[in-house]
């Protein structure tokens, strides 16, 4: 029984690991795609938002909040990636995927602009709540 559970856990863990690698590769491809001049403006805008959020050092919902903190990363980022990919022509996206193979080998770059935007959202929400309470 214990061996079966251990084997299932290893299989589940390897599947999660593969999905994380795929998301990482897709983020890299979107990062390259929004820099290309042949990508439509609206696709660039969505790509910038998705990549900015994924690489931001600050989350919209902080990770220390139980369940919700990690749930936003598990839902928002994949949905954003899928939406952005649908907006970019498939031949361009395939080229960007090939180029993104080793884009994060030196670690992921930090996007402090997106982090500042998220901090501003939190400040506005906090201020709004304070004004309503007082």
TrEMBL record:
Tagged with keyword Membrane: yes
InterPro entries to which the protein is assigned, alphabetical: DUF1232
UniProt entry tagged with the keyword Transmembrane: yes
Cell compartments where the protein resides: Endomembrane system
Domain DUF1232: 43-79
Bilayer-crossing regions: 41-58, 112-131
The entry's keywords: Membrane, Transmembrane, Transmembrane helix
Topology of this chain in the membrane: Multi-pass membrane protein
GO cellular component, one term: endomembrane system
Name assigned to this protein: DUF1232 domain-containing protein
Organism: Clostridium aciditolerans
């Amino acid at each position: 029984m214990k061996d079966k559970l251990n084997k299932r856990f290893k299989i589940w863990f390897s599947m999660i690991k593969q999905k994380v690698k795929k998301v990482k590769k897709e983020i890299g491809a979107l990062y390259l795609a929004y820099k290309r001049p042949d990508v439509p403006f609206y696709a660039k805008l969505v790509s910038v938002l998705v990549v900015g959020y994924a690489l931001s050092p600050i989350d919209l919902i902080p990770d220390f909040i139980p369940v919700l903190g990690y749930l936003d990363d598990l839902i928002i980022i994949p949905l954003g990636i899928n939406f952005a990919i649908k907006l970019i022509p498939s031949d361009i996206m395939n080229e960007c995927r090939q180029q993104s193979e080793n884009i994060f080998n030196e670690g992921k770059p930090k996007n402090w602009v997106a982090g500042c935007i998220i901090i501003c959202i939190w400040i506005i929400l906090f201020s709004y709540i304070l004004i309503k309470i007082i």
